[in-house]
Amino acid sequence: MKQIIDNFTNVLKNKYACFKGRAGRKEFWYFILVYTVLMFVLQQIATLIGGKVPLIVAGLVALAFVLPAFGITVRRLHDIGKSGWAVLVNLIPFVGGIIFLIWMIKEGDKVENVYGPAVQ
Question: 30 to each of 3, 51, 105, 112, how far by Cα in Å?
Answer without folding.
Answer: 9, 31, 13, 23
